[in-house]
């Protein structure tokens, strides 16, 4: 093992740049998937004829596909039908599609967890269905959904490493380039990469635990 060579200034800078790409991809994907997930989950909860069934089919299909396949399809297959994207855009698109399906199920479950009696009481008091959903159901459901949503965000951050297959210059991609130079760099680089992932994910998990404890 060559810690001095593996963790040289240039290598650390290269890894840090990759880590910034990882965080950027994760942040954009989290924001987009959160918005889309809430919309899809709410529409499925509302049980709108046809639309709910179509969305259910799409969500279940995506949830049962490996993320690796979705990344491959986004970057390699879509250009065949005229949809070309950069590596970064393809990674964000694939992660957003996959995580939106996951988050929509969390949202739908959260909405379903609210006591139906509250909904009936709100409707009987004169509130419309939309008002009941936005003022009574959604605020309570969101509080219950926070811990599992944060856990899903942690999974998303780790899943960004799968984009290495399309040569996205994220953390794992840059790590591979470094340890490919010298076999003695492998363990030191993997230790540092593990620490970098751990710090961010552990921070998010602490947030999830604190939020969960507040719900108890």
CATH fold-level assignment of the domain at 20-169 = MetI-like fold
Order of secondary-structure elements: HHHHHHHHH
| Overall geometric form | elongated
Structure annotation, total helices: 9
**Assigned CATH class of the domain at 20-169:** Mainly Alpha
pLDDT < 50 stretches? none
User: Rg to the nearest angstrom?
Assistant: 21 Å
> Architecture of the domain at 20-169, according to CATH?
Orthogonal Bundle
- Average pLDDT across residues? 90
Structure summary, number of beta strands: 0
Judged by helices, strands and strand pairing, the structural class is: mainly alpha
Strand content: under 5%
Binned, the helix content reads: over 70%
Q: Distance between the terminal alpha carbons, to the nearest Å?
A: 47 Å
How many strands, which pairing sense, and closed or not: the largest β-sheet? none
What is the H level of CATH, i.e. the homologous superfamily of the domain at 20-169?
A: MetI-like
Domain ABC transmembrane type-1: 19-208
Keywords: Amino-acid transport, Cell membrane, Membrane, Transmembrane, Transmembrane helix, Transport
Subcellular location: Cell membrane
Membrane topology: Multi-pass membrane protein
């Amino acid at each position: 093992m060559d810690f001095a060579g593996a963790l040289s200034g240039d290598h650390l800078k290269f890894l840090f740049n990759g880590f910034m790409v990882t965080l950027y991809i994760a942040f954009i994907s989290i924001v987009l998937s959160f918005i889309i997930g809430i919309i899809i989950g709410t529409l499925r909860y509302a049980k709108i004829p046809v639309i709910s069934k179509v969305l259910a089919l799409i969500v279940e299909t995506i949830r049962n596909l490996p993320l690796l396949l979705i990344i491959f399809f986004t970057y390699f297959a879509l250009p065949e039908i005229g949809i070309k994207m950069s590596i970064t855009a393809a990674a964000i698109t694939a992660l957003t599609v996959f995580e939106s399906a996951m988050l929509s199920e969390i949202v739908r479950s959260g909405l379903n967890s609210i006591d139906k009696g509250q909904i009936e009481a709100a409707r009987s008091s004169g509130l419309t269905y939309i008002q009941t959903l936005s003022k009574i159901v959604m605020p309570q459901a969101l509080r219950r959904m926070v811990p599992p949503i944060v856990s899903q965000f942690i999974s998303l951050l780790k899943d960004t490493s799968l984009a290495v297959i399309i040569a996205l210059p994220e953390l794992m991609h840059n790590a591979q380039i470094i340890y490919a130079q010298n076999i003695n760099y492998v363990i030191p680089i993997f230790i540092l990469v593990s620490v970098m992932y751990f710090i961010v994910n552990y921070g998010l998990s602490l947030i999830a635990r604190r939020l969960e404890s507040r719900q108890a």
